[in-house]
Amino acid sequence: MTVEVLVIGIGSGDPAHLTGEAVAAMNRVDVFLVADKGGAKVDLTTMRTALCETVIHDHAYRVVEVTDPQRGPDAERDQVAYEAGVRDWHQARAKRYAEVIRAETGPVGFLVWGDPAFYDSTIRIVDSVAALGVDLAVTVIPGISSVQLLAARHRLVLNGVGGSVHLTTGRRLVAEYDPGLGDVVVMLDGTLTCARLLEDHPDLQIFWGAQLGLPDEALVAGPLAEVLEEIRAVRLRLRASRGWVMDTYLLRATTPGPG
Ligand SMILES: C[S@@+](CC[C@H](N)C(=O)[O-])C[C@H]1O[C@@H](n2cnc3c(N)ncnc32)[C@H](O)[C@@H]1O
Predict the structure, then answer these.
(1) CB 183 near ligand 1, within 6 Å
(2) Which of 34-43, 62-71, 153-162 has the highest mean pLDDT?
(3) Contact 158, 237 (CB under 8 A)
(4) Is the CB of 13 under 6 A from ligand 1?
(5) Could you give the CA distance from residue 201 to residue 225 in angstroms, rounded to a whole number?
(6) Which of the four CATH numbers 3.90.640.10, 1.10.10.10, 3.40.1280.10, 3.30.950.10 does domain 146-253 have?
(7) Quick one: average pLDDT of 12-28?
């Protein structure tokens, strides 16, 4: 039997950011699978549940929590060990999802924060479930990413005229950064790694946003050297009040390099 799987991008948690296509898909899902994790993820799971209650009408659905396997300490690993660790973790996760999906007739839904195309493993995990021999018909519904929200809030075009945009993580930023990359969008950076670029690139501009789309949304923009301490202070305040911070930022060189 083929099980229909809907991977649905849900934006930031604000129901106004759900697309019509996402709302229609959510109203067809019989079982939502969510990872059972601690910390910020508990908060995000609560927000997903609230979204379902807001937009699903006259359709019975269940929410099934799938316990996540333990994941090792990423920060202490080199890139090869990190990638191997993530692969093992995805595989263990896929096996757990496969067990649950085999017991369902569908449609099964995954609610993905932002857009499934940006630093999210759901599509890969669903592919791994299929590779384990579960017959799936998968549809992906795009959502509004934190990258798009960041650009809109700062009223930015991400690329310079005809230029490139480089999307990366805090983990990779220092090794990769070069003004010739064009504008650089950084996600998954828990420690404001951009501070380490200042010595070589003192003219960088930053457009920073945290908790985008949520009631405690915060924005800061300006020369990185001048606003770095303000961003650090806002991060601390947000973490103290909510328990976690999610932030994304754009770095722009005022004097672009060649290329
Ligand atoms: C696992 S990735 C998920 C990205 C998500 N798929 C998206 O499209 O935004 C998590 C990272 O996304 C960014 N992020 C997610 N939600 C955010 C928000 N509400 N405000 C700012 N950044 C956010 C942060 O960089 C965070 O570290």
Answers:
(1) no
(2) 153-162
(3) no
(4) no
(5) 10
(6) 3.30.950.10
(7) 94
